[in-house]
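Worked example
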Amino acid sequence: MLLRNRLHDPDIMIRAGMLTLIVGLFAQRFIHPPSDFWQGFVMGVSGSMIGLSIVFNLRGLVLHRQRRAKGE
């Protein structure tokens, strides 16, 4: 119930997007596993986090534009 309410708040969506972007970039930069498998895993997770940040930020911008169009 709480998550459903927050998915319609553009500020929360943009914050979540920025958080996932930071986590994804820090994972790429500062985590260096020893084996090839774990290097690929970390790169996959960081790529997914960066992709989620794009989705969250775009959704936040769309919600912000819709809210502005309604005049709230």
